[in-house]
Amino acid sequence: MPDELGGAVGIERWELLQKAKGDMDPFLLDGIKLTHGTKDKPTIIRSVCDTRTIGCVCDDDATTVRYIELCMGETRRCQCGHFFKLVDADAEV
Ligand SMILES: [Zn+2]
């Protein structure tokens, strides 16, 4: 009888392997802490897909979330001026 990892394939297997390595939020569903967010040092967003939609709460008083679609390798600027870059989930940054 295979264990949970032995029976898992595809993205489910990748998720279990990341959790085994200590990354308990491999899909970044818990939210991320913003970094510098400049054009030269954008906030890095990881993804296993070629595109990812993110939500930016542009300031502390914002009552809405601004959604931005990122493409792999692309750096995009939110209307608030914060830069985000989408990189492969396994990439070294
Ligand atoms: Zn923003």
UniProtKB/TrEMBL annotation:
GO biological processes: mitochondrial electron transport, cytochrome c to oxygen
Keywords: Metal-binding, Zinc
GO MF annotation terms: metal ion binding
Residues the record lists as binding Zn(2+): C56, C58, C78, C80
GO cellular component: mitochondrial envelope; respiratory chain complex IV
Protein name as catalogued: COX5B
Organism whose genome encodes this protein: Bugula neritina (Brown bryozoan)
